[in-house]
Specification:
The complex is a heterodimer. Chain A has one domain: Trna Endonuclease, Chain: A, domain 1. In chain A, 28% of the residues lie in helices and 29% in strands. Chain A is built from four helices and nine strands; from the N terminus they run αβββαβββαββαβ. Chain A has a six-stranded mixed sheet. Chain A is globular, with a radius of gyration of 15 Å. Chain B is mostly helical. Chain B has one domain. In chain B, α1 runs antiparallel to α2. Chain B is globular. The chains are: A alpha+beta, B mainly alpha. At the A-B interface, α3 of A face α1, α3 and α5 of B.
Amino acid sequence: MGFKEDLKRGVAVEDDLLRRLRSLFPNAKRAEGLHPEFDIEIPELQKTVEVKYDPMSQKTGNIVIEYYHNKPSAFSVSIADYWVIVTGNGEYWFSRQGILDCILCEGLEPVRILGTTDRHPKWVFLIPISALVRYSNAVLAVQL
Amino acid sequence: MRPAEFNAQIKSAAKKTYYPQCLKYIEDNLEPAFHDLAKATLVYYLPSNILDLPSKDERKAAIDSIPRNATPSHTRQLVEHGVMTLWKKERNGI
């Protein structure tokens, strides 16, 4: 799977979430320009959302939370109030603090991975879904 | 540098507890190419070390030693939240 395909699938997941959010919050919109701090803004609630598509988690059982990719990235720079992680068979909502709580309380250690489309290694936490859901605000449509 | 070696160095840095000393350890023991990564990783090891300090005043001083403009952004906020989380976990005996 190439970078463009990954990007395309990620955008489709964001579009789907945005469509559903707009049914409740018509002013919800995608972040404009280069915005690593969040993906979607909900002005009605003054909240922001980071969307992450992680289909590999279905095979590995782990959600990848990146925090460094040649520079501080993703979890290190996001200011989103909510992280929505879409695995392909479920959608999990977290606060940023919830993810941090999981990393700390479960005693997780960072690991270095090199994705097939990455030029530089990423530093990430591999968080078992079974552990992470305990820190979730909501779990939608999980197919067991 | 192997990840296990890197993580061991960051654990040692975090044992310094007070942010300026942690940074000094990083600068003294890691090559410059790893400094930004080390600072980004420190966030996850510092809370448990701060919580281990014997008094509330010392814990507060350790958190206050993190500049509000430390990089990555939100370092102080994340560490402070992490200390509170681990404190609640310990208090509740979870």
